Amino acid sequence: MASVLVLNGPNLGRLGSREPDVYGSQDLVTLEQQLTTAAAGRASIDLRQTNDEAELISWLYEAVDSNTPVILNPAAFTHYSYALRDAAALVTKAGIPLIEVHISNPHARETFRHTSVISGIASGVIAGFGFGSYRLALMALLEPEG
Ligand code: DQA
């Protein structure tokens, strides 16, 4: 079965208790279950989270080397990590889809969140639909023809 890497950046390990008014009250375990259900046997979901920029970059190398599509919530790295952008560019320049997702809509929040250094090299961007952003990204990967 094909695999999809669902990579989550800093502080997303605290989903469930972190700012529930912004991010909801469900955690990453629930997200993995939702995505596995949505995949319906068409892909296996490999969901990971790290607070470490280097580890996130190493997972993007792994995506390149294994030709695995990526759903990426870069969290705060979205807004300033050129190193993560360069690593994400390796994925899309290899012809592998990488979809940037956000639980909240960063454009409706503080000004510093309006900039994404990732979007310019992503295959697409989905934001503002809670965990639904990830499910929509998964559908885009599994049903690219719509
Ligand atoms: C986020 C939005 C980012 O601005 C923030 O730093 C996060 C989560 C989101 O999913 O809405 O940690 O990526």
TrEMBL record:
**Taxonomically, which superkingdom?**
Bacteria
InterPro entries in UniProt: DHquinase_II, DHquinase_II_CS, DHquinase_II_sf
Q: Which residues form the active site?
A: 23, 102
The protein's UniProt keywords, in alphabetical order, are: Amino-acid biosynthesis, Aromatic amino acid biosynthesis, Lyase
Q: In which pathway does it act?
A: Metabolic intermediate biosynthesis; chorismate biosynthesis; chorismate from D-erythrose 4-phosphate and phosphoenolpyruvate: step 3/7
Q: Which reaction is the catalytic activity of this chain?
A: 3-dehydroquinate = 3-dehydroshikimate + H2O
Sites binding substrate sit at: 73, 79, 86, 103-104, 113
Q: Give the record's subunit note.
A: Homododecamer.
The UniProt similarity line reads:
Belongs to the type-II 3-dehydroquinase family.
Q: What does this protein do?
A: Catalyzes a trans-dehydration via an enolate intermediate.
- What's the protein here called? 3-dehydroquinate dehydratase
Gene name tied to this protein: aroQ
